[in-house]
Structure formats: C-alpha cells, structure tokens
Design brief:
Family: Belongs to the DNA polymerase HolA subunit family.
Keywords: DNA replication, DNA-directed DNA polymerase, Nucleotidyltransferase, Transferase
Order of helices and strands: HEHEHHEHEHEHHHHHHHHHH
CATH architecture of the largest domain: 3-Layer(aba) Sandwich
Radius of gyration: 26 Å
Number of domains: 3
Shape: elongated
EC number: 2.7.7.7
CATH superfamily of the largest domain: P-loop containing nucleotide triphosphate hydrolases
Number of helices: 16
Helix content: 55-70%
Protein name: DNA-directed DNA polymerase
Number of strands: 5
GO molecular function, one term: DNA-directed DNA polymerase activity
CATH topology of the largest domain: Rossmann fold
Length: 340
C-alpha cells in the first residue's frame, strides 16, 4: 500500500506492529536514512539492538547470500518484542530476493524494512510494496519539514517553550539546511538552553545557527545596500578568488534589491513586506533587510534595480570591459545612492 506524505509522519512516530514490511525510498539519502532510523527506533524500542531484535543486512551482503533475509525474518531471539530485518540501499536487482522473503512472511515474523534511492513507478520493488495488503511503500520527497515535523523535533529535544519569533526563525532554518544539519542544530539548541528558565528566543536561535554557505555574497550585497562602499573592494576580491562569477553576483544583487523593493512597497510596512516575500528571507538577514528597505524607500530601490538590470545586460553582451570591474562599479554606485 502507498503511504501518503500526510499520513507517513504519524506512522513513523507510532508504527503498527504486525506489518510485513515497509519500503522507504527517495532521492535524498539523508532524508531516507533519518526516516528509517525513526521508524526502526519506534518499532523495536531503545533496547532493540542490544537485545538483538534488529538485524542489519547491507544490500551487497544480500546479493552474495540471498538466504540472509529469509533467515533474519524467521529467526527467533531470546528477548520478547517486535523484531526488524533491515535491508539498506536496495535496488531492483534484489527485488526477487526481497519479495520471496515477504511472500513467506507469517504472523510473528520480523518486519522487513527496506531503504532505496529513487525508484520509478515501474520499479519491481516499488510495485510489490505498493500492491501488498500488509506492507507500505513510502516516498520521501525533498520538501522542507512541515510544522508538525518541526514541532516533533523540538519536543524530542525537550524544547517546549518557543517564542513565536524564534519559531519563525527555526522554520526558516528548516528550509535553509538539509535534514541532518537541521536536526544537529536543534540538538545544539537544546544543549544551549540547558538550565535556562525562559523560552527560546531569536537570539538563542541565532547563537547556534550555522553560518550561511553564501555568507560572503550576502555580505557584499549588505555592504552595497548599507552604503559601505569602502568594504566592497576586499569583499569582491575574496569572492572572485572563490570562483564566484560576475553574472551570478549580478543575479544575486537583483534578487536582493527586488526583495527590498517588495518590502518597501508593502502597504503594511517593510517588516510585513519582508515576511510575505517568497522564497522567505533567511532569518539572520530579515531585520537587517527591513532596515535597508526603510532607508532606501520604494522610489530609490526602483532606480537601483534599473542600474542592476543595465549592468546585467552589459555583462551578457559582447562588452570587452572586465566583468568583475563592471559589477564592482555598479555596487559602488548603489552604495552611494542611499546617501544622495
């Protein structure tokens, strides 16, 4: 049976015992691994591995010895409780071996958990699980976690008092980080809050959040928007050494100033405008960009966007001028605009 994305979190949190098997597949190996880890932990409990109620079978070992899975499904241990036979990184080459073990499954046997990468609808493994009456096929998509999933992570970490603004920042982090990094950040936040009586605040989230991978590019754009022309040269030299292309920098500048323009043009004010922008502004930059939008105003931001578009067109033409120099000149002109 197919398990929908809406029902999957509930099943992973409280899985039913007595299921024949579960296939978890998706493009992102980290997301698949985290869901598999959650499911197995909730099936066998915290002592399941110590009590040998969990059997791990790498796909490479199963190819060499097809009987491994059948033996693990039927084996009875010394300790009572649900058992799991876990096959990692399976492909359709193992479909016959896995389906044979599941066809022979009986009540009281171990639940078979199988993880795989991306599987097409024609995949033999996927079709089998989707058509089985007592097994589930769960597709893990590369979507950011839902509000319920974020709250579940926070609850697991013992963080039950969250300031509303801090929750907005945490949601922003969940979209900016991959699942593994996001979980580590929540764990870090939990340790950071040990002994604190008050709720988690935006300052607490900022203190544990990892640095943005685009921090240098962002700093160049902030310097231009805040009138710090003298800092642009060294920052651009660093970006050029990192291999950032002038056209990419121009595109980033366009996105930054369009966001400021949308915020400055919002009838409810810049703060409300920033909150409505899609994709969302990274929480570390939100207050800073609100101040920038308020300083510039919609009229001057429109002029700034015209300058950036003209620079972009020049970069894409056959102009012989050094491209990074063109971008630097445009950013310096932008840096002087708020003061004129």
């Amino acid at each position: 049976m197919k398990l929908s994305p809406r029902d999957a979190p509930r099943f992973f949190a409280k899985p039913e015992t007595g299921r024949t098997g579960v296939l978890i597949f998706g493009n992102d190996a980290m997301r698949v691994a985290l869901k598999r880890q959650e499911l197995i932990a909730n099936l066998v409990g915290p002592s399941g591995e110590e009590e040998m109620r969990l059997t791990r079978i790498p796909a490479s070992d199963l190819r060499k010895d097809p009987a491994l899975l059948s033996d693990a499904v039927k084996a009875q241990g010394f300790f009572p409780g649900p058992r799991v036979a876990f096959v990692d990184e399976a492909t359709d080459t193992l479909a016959k071996t896995i389906t044979a073990a599941l066809d022979d499954w009986r009540e009281g046997d171990a639940t078979v958990i199988v993880t795989a990468g991306s599987l097409t609808p024609r995949s033999a493994l996927r079709k089998y699980f989707e058509g089985h009456k007592n097994a589930f096929a769960v597709a893990i998509y590369d979507d950011p976690p839902t509000k319920a999933e974020i709250e579940a992570e926070l609850a697991k970490a013992g963080l039950d008092r969250i300031d509303p603004e801090a929750m907005t920042d945490i949601a922003g982090l969940s979209r900016a980080l991959d699942p593994g990094d996001f979980r580590q950040t929540i764990e870090k936040l939990s340790l950071y809050m040990l002994g604190e009586a008050g709720p988690v605040t935006p300052a607490d989230v900022l203190a544990v959040a990892p640095a943005s991978t685009e921090a240098d590019t962002d700093e160049v754009l902030h310097a231009a928007a805040e009138g710090r022309a003298g800092e642009l040269g060294p920052l651009l030299t660093r970006l050029e050494a990192q291999g950032v292309q002038p056209v990419a920098l121009c595109i980033a500048a366009t996105r930054h100033f369009r966001t400021l323009f949308a915020a400055a043009s919002d009838p409810g004010g810049a703060a409300q405008g920033i909150s409505r922008v899609r994709p969302p502004v990274h929480f570390k930059s939100r207050d800073r960009m609100v101040r920038q939008a308020q300083t510039w105003g919609a009229a001057r931001l429109e002029t700034a966007l015209q300058l950036i578009v003209e620079t972009d067109l020049t970069l894409r033409s056959s102009a012989r001028a050094p491209q990074m120099a063109l971008v630097e000149r445009a950013l310096i002109r932008l840096a002087h605009m708020p003061r004129t």
